[in-house]
Write a structure and sequence with these properties.
107 residues; 37% helix
């Protein structure tokens, strides 16, 4: 799981967790970081600035959205992503932006 167009990879996600790397939601108002990355169950959890931990996000779904942005022209937009992964649009958009994911059209 790595990308020639941005920094998206399992290793990068692991490093972000280890380094406690902060990134922001799509709107830029809330800080997030990766709280848990479980390779066995292929999930990750994020921690919000409120110290609350999210429920698990399937890494397969994250990769699917990422790939659709780069290869199918899906917009890197929280509302669009929310339709694919309900309730995750804001967080996934922020994470992918942090990783330099801008899609085919530079969106």
């Amino acid at each position: 799981m790595s990308c020639p167009y941005c920094q998206f990879s399992l290793n990068t996600l692991k490093q972000m967790q280890e380094d406690h790397t902060t990134f922001y939601t799509a709107g830029g108002r809330r800080k997030l970081w990766i709280a848990e990355l479980d390779e066995a169950s292929k999930t990750l959890k994020m921690e919000r600035s409120t110290k609350k931990i999210t429920w698990s996000l399937d890494l397969g779904q994250l990769k699917d959205v990422h790939d659709r942005i780069h290869y199918e022209g899906l917009l890197l937009d929280a509302e669009v992503i929310d339709k694919i992964i309900p309730t995750w649009g804001n967080y996934v958009t922020g994470l992918l932006r942090h990783l330099g994911c801008i899609g085919k059209s530079g969106s």
